[in-house]
Specification:
539 residues; five-stranded antiparallel beta sheet; globular
C-alpha cells in the first residue's frame, strides 16, 4: 500500500481487532461467527452491518459498504489515509513511522530475503533425506512424525558444513547476513545453523521468514532460533498460525502450547487450532494477534512448576484483552510431560479430555490467589485483595470488570470471611474433631473476651462449633485465653499440613515431581510450627 510500509499496516491490523475499532462507533451484538449492528453509513432500523473479526473486515448488506479498520476509520471520521493511520497507531500504542512511499530498494530487499529463506528450506529438506541427515530423520520419525507431516511443515536438516554459505556463494553477503542464516567470520561466511533439525517459521501469509533449529548432538541450547531480523521478530511471531487460521475460525478458539513439536503434533491429531510462541515467553503481541482471530483461548501448559508459572504469566497478560465474549481457559498436561507425550501414550481422547476439563480464567485466577497468599490471616487476605484488584484493573470493559469484582466479592465473603457467631462454615480440609473440654473452653473464651473472638474469627469458624451455648466459668485470664487459642490453632494447622502431606504422597508415588517439592515444603513448615508451639508452651 502506498504511503506506509506494508509491514506497519499489517501490524496495525494484527494489533487491533476490527470488533474493537468498529465497536467504538457502532453497538455490536454477536450472532453466530459475526458481530452485527446498524450501519453507520446509511439510516436503518434493522441491523444489516456485519463485522467478521477473524477475517478483519466489515460489510453492510443494506448499502454495500465494505472494508477493514483503515477504511472504517477514514470514512467514519472523514479522514484521509494518513490521519486514519495516525489514529489507529495511537489506539494500538505504536509509534507512527515516517510517511513516505515504499522504498523500491526495501521491496527488493524483502524479495531477496524471502528468496534466500525459501532456497534454504529446500536445501535443508533435501539434506534430511540424504545420508548426512539420517540421524535427524530417525529422530523426528521416532517422535511420531510421518513423512507427510515432515513435508507439510517443511522440516529439514542443517548439516555440519556451511551448506547455505557455500551453495549461495553468488548471493551478496549482506543479504545472507540479513536473514540470520549466515554470519561473517575471520575466514569468511559460515552458517548459523549446523547439525540441527530445522523447523521453518512462516509468517501469516505462509512465507518462510526464519528457522528454529533443534540440536542433534546434545549441545545447548537445545533450540536455537533465527535472531530478530527486518522481517522476523520472535515477540510478534506465533508458530503454526499460518496453518491454524482456518481451524481457529472453525473451532471458535485457539489452543496455545509451549513448543513447536507440541504444536505440530496437536495440529496433526485433530487440534488444528493449536499454536505456540517462539523461543520466548508469551507476549502481549502474541495475545493481540490471537484475539484478532478469536478471543477464546485455551492455554495448555505442562503440569510442572514451570508450566504453572507460565500459566500465571499468561493470565496476567490476557486480562486487558478480555471481553464479554471471551472464553479463556487453562489446561495442564497429565499422564505425560507434554502434549506430544500424551498424544503418543494416551491418544487423542486423553488429550481432548485435558482440553475439555480446562479451568476457566475466573477460577484459575481465584485459585492462583489462594495458592500464593495465606488467606487464613488478615495480612494475607489484604495482600490477596491487592493482587486481585491489580489484575482486575487491567480489564478494559467496565461492565465485565464489575462482574468479576462482584464474583470475587461473593467468593471472599463465602470463603475468606466465614466466621460468625452461631455460623456453620464449611472447610476445605476435614472438619477437626474437638472434644467436649475444648469446646467448653472455647465457648467460655468467646463469651468472656469478644475481642479475641474477632481476632481469631477465621480459625474459630473452621472448627464448626455452635457457640450459642452456656459454658462453665474457666477463670482464665485474657493472656491465658489467647495463649490457649494460639496453641490450639498451631495444633490444628499441623493437622491440616499432615492431611495435605498424605494427599501429596500418593501423587509423588505416581511420579509427580511437583508433589515431592510440596512435601518438602510442608515438612519444613511442620517443623517450624512445632518449634513455635514448644516455645509457646514453655512460656
Amino acid at each position: 500500500m502506498a504511503g506506509y510500509d506494508r509491514n506497519f499496516t499489517d501490524e496495525l491490523r494484527a494489533r487491533l481487532s476490527i470488533v474493537d475499532v468498529v465497536g467504538r462507533r457502532v453497538p455490536l451484538v454477536k450472532k453466530g461467527q459475526n458481530y452485527w449492528g446498524c450501519c453507520p453509513f446509511h439510516n436503518e432500523k434493522t441491523a444489516s452491518f456485519s463485522v467478521n473479526e477473524e477475517k478483519g473486515f466489515y460489510h453492510c448488506f443494506g448499502c454495500g459498504e465494505h472494508g477493514d479498520i483503515i477504511s472504517f476509520t477514514m470514512k467514519t471520521n472523514n479522514m484521509d489515509f494518513r490521519a486514519a493511520i495516525a489514529e489507529l497507531a495511537n489506539q494500538a500504542g505504536l509509534k507512527l513511522p515516517e510517511y513516505k512511499p515504499r522504498d523500491p530498494a526495501q521491496v527488493a530487499r524483502e524479495d531477496t530475503y524471502l528468496s534466500i529463506t525459501e532456497r534454504a528450506a529446500k536445501l535443508y529438506q533435501q539434506k534430511l533425506f540424504e545420508d548426512a541427515g539420517a540421524h535427524a530423520l530417525s529422530y523426528i520419525r521416532g517422535r511420531g512424525f510421518t513423512d507427510d507431516m515432515i513435508k507439510k511443515y517443511r522440516i529439514g536438516y542443517a548439516p555440519k558444513n556451511n551448506i547455505v554459505a557455500n551453495t549461495m556463494a553468488n548471493v551478496k553477503q549482506d543479504a545472507l547476513v540479513s536473514t540470520g542464516l549466515c554470519r561473517r567470520g575471520e575466514y569468511g561466511m559460515y552458517d548459523f545453523f549446523r547439525d540441527r533439525l530445522m523447523f521453518p517459521i512462516f509468517n501469516t501469509r505462509g512465507q518462510i521468514v526464519a528457522f528454529s533449529g533443534r540440536s542433534m548432538d546434545g549441545s545447548e541450547p537445545k533450540y536455537m532460533n533465527t535472531t530478530d531480523t527486518e522481517m522476523f521478530h520472535k515477540r510478534k511471531t506465533i508458530f503454526g498460525l499460518n496453518f491454524a487460521r482456518d481451524a481457529i475460525y472453525r473451532a471458535g478458539r485457539s489452543i496455545v502450547v509451549e513448543g513447536q513439536i507440541d504444536a505440530i503434533q496437536m495440529q496433526s491429531h485433530g487440534f488444528g487450532e493449536t499454536v505456540a510462541p517462539l523461543g520466548t515467553a508469551l507476549t502481549e503481541d502474541h495475545i493481540a494477534i490471537l484475539c484478532k482471530s478469536n478471543r477464546n483461548i485455551t492455554f495448555c501448559f505442562d503440569g510442572d512448576k514451570a508450566g504453572q508459572k507460565a500459566a500465571a504469566r499468561a493470565c496476567a497478560i490476557v486480562m486487558p484483552f478480555l471481553r464479554d465474549t471471551s472464553d479463556i481457559r487453562f489446561a495442564f498436561v497429565t499422564g505425560g510431560k507434554d502434549p506430544d507425550e500424551v498424544l503418543k501414550n494416551g491418544g487423542d481422547a486423553q488429550m481432548r479430555k485435558i482440553i475439555d476439563d480446562a479451568t476457566p480464567l475466573v477460577d484459575f485466577l481465584w485459585n492462583t490467589t489462594n495458592n500464593n497468599f495465606l488467606v487464613s490471616t488478615p495480612g494475607g487476605r489484604a495482600s490477596a485483595e491487592k493482587f486481585l484488584d491489580k489484575e482486575l484493573e487491567k480489564i478494559q470493559d467496565p461492565a465485565l470488570r464489575r462482574e468479576y469484582v462482584n464474583e470475587y466479592n461473593s467468593r471472599k465473603f463465602n470463603e475468606w470471611h466465614k466466621w460468625k457467631k452461631g455460623g456453620n462454615a464449611k472447610s476445605a480440609a476435614p472438619v477437626p474433631e474437638i472434644d467436649a473440654v475444648t469446646i467448653n473452653t472455647l465457648v467460655y473464651i468467646i463469651g468472656a473476651y469478644p475481642d479475641l473472638a474477632e481476632r481469631y474469627g477465621d480459625f474459630l469458624a473452621s472448627l464448626n462449633i455452635d457457640f450459642d451455648r452456656d459454658a462453665t466459668d474457666m477463670n482464665l485470664s485474657r493472656d491465658g485465653a489467647e495463649k490457649y487459642l494460639v496453641s490450639l490453632k498451631a495444633q490444628k494447622y499441623i493437622e491440616k499440613l499432615n492431611f495435605q502431606k498424605r494427599e501429596l504422597m500418593s501423587k509423588m508415588l505416581n511420579g509427580d515431581e511437583f508433589a515431592r517439592e510440596e512435601i518438602i515444603r510442608i515438612d519444613n513448615e511442620i517443623a517450624r510450627t512445632n518449634d513455635k508451639l514448644e516455645t509457646l508452651i514453655s512460656i
